[in-house]
TrEMBL record:
InterPro entries assigned: Isoprenoid_synthase_dom_sf, Terpene_cyclase-like_1_C, Terpene_cyclase_plant_C1, Terpene_synth_N, Terpene_synth_N_sf, Terpene_synthase-like, Terpene_synthase_metal-bd, Terpenoid_cyclase/PrenylTrfase
Residue ranges constituting the Terpene synthase metal-binding domain according to the UniProt record: 213-411
Domain (Terpene synthase N-terminal): residue spans on this chain: 2-154
Any one GO MF annotation of this record: terpene synthase activity
Cofactors, names only: Mg(2+); Mn(2+)
One GO-annotated biological process of the protein: diterpenoid biosynthetic process
Protein name as it appears in the record: Sesquiterpene cyclase
Keywords: Metal-binding
Coiled-coil intervals: none
CDD domains, sorted: Terpene_cyclase_plant_C1
Amino acid sequence: MVHRAEQLKEEVAAKLVAASSACSLHRRIHLIHVLERLCLDHLFEDEISDMLARMNDVDVSGCDLQTVAMWFYLLRKHGYSVSSDVFAEFRDEQGGGFTANSARDLLSLHCAACLATRGETILDEAISFTAKSLKSTAPYTGAASLACEIKRALEIPLPRRVRIYEAKSRIAEYGREAEADELVMELAKLNYNLVQLQYQQELKIITRWWNGLELQSRLSFARDRVVECYFWIVGVYFEPSYSRARIILTKVIAIVSLLDDTYDVYGTPQECELFTECIESWDPAVAGGLPENMKFIFGKILDTYQSIEEELAPEEKYRMPYIKNFIIDLVRAYNKEVRWREQGYVPATVEEHLQVSARSGACHLLSCASFVGMGDVAGEEAFEWVCSVPKLVQALCIILRLSDDLKSYERWRLPGSIYNQGTACACSERKWPRMLPRQ
C-alpha cells in the first residue's frame, strides 16, 4: 500500500507540473482545490506553491465568476494580497446583487467572500446576497451532492471547516463526480487509510500514557476524555509529519481538562489556594500540605511536563519554560474564579469577566503548546510571539470563552435541568457562569 501510494504521488506530481503550464486557469485552480479538499495538498507543497505563484500574476478580468471566485479564494487563503475589486465586474447595479449563472457560481462566490477583511464592502454584500440566493436555490439544484454542499456552506463556510473531519465523505463525493481523476481518487483513498493507521498508532501511545497516570482509579471526578482531546488535535494539524506535535498537544489539553475539573468540582477554596501555590513553585517539596489526591495530581502534572521535555531535542528544550509559565497563569485564573464563586462576586462588566475567564479558557497555553512538537517549523520567535498575546490570540480566547458561556447557558436553562438556576450572564445579578460545567 505504501509503495503504491508513492507511485501515485509521483504521477500526480507530474500531472501538477504539466498543468502549471499546459492547462487552463480554471483547470489548474480546480486541481489544487480538489487536492486540498481531499487532504492531499501536504504531499505536493512545492508544486502547489509554484502554481499559486504563477496564478498570482494572472489577469482574471473576463473570466467567469466561478473561476475568479476560486482564484481569489485560493490565493487569499495562502496569504497572497489579492484585491476584492475583481468582483466589481459581476455586480448587478440595478438588482443590487451579483450576476451568477449557476448555483455553483453562487457557492464559489460565497466561499471566497467568507475570506473578507474589515472594510471590504463588496465582499460583505456578496455574503449577504449569496446566502439568501443559495437558500432559495438549494432545493432546485437537481444534484443531491451540490445541495448538500450548499447546506454545509451555509451552516459553516468552507474556510472555517476542518478538512480532515470531512475527508472521508469528500472522497466519496469526489468519486461520484464526472470529472474525477482516477489517479487522484486512488491516491486519496490510499492516503486516507495510511493516515488513519498512523492516527491509530498515535492513539495507542496516548492511551497508554493516560492509563499509566492511573487517574480513573484515584480521581472519580476527572473526565476521561483523552480520545476526544486527540480528535480535536487532529483538526489542528492532520499532516503525518506532525505526529509528535499531536501527541504532545493532546497530553497538554488532557492535563488542562484535569486541572479544570480539579478547580471546578473537587477542590475547596482553601485547597485550591494551596494547589495554586504549589503549581507556582513548580517544586514537589512544597506539596506536603496538600490533600493526597491533589498531591497526586500535582505529581502527575510534573511527570507529564518532564516526559514531554524528554521527547525534545537538546536545542528544543528552551520551549518548556513557556509552557510552564502559561500553566501557572492558567491556574491563577482558575483560582481567581474560585474566589469569586466563594465570595458570591459577580463581575461588574463583561470586560472584567473576560480579563479572567478568557485566560481560564486555556487558549494561551494551548496556542503555545501547539508549537512545541513542530520541530523547525516553529522557532523561538514563534514562542515569543504567542507570549506577547497578539490580537489574534486575544480574539481566539474571547471567541472560545463566549462560545463556551453560551453553550453552558443553553444547558443551564433547559427545563428540568439541574443547571436551570438563572441567567449565565457576566453582568447578571445571579450566579457566576464559571460555576457551570465546561463544554
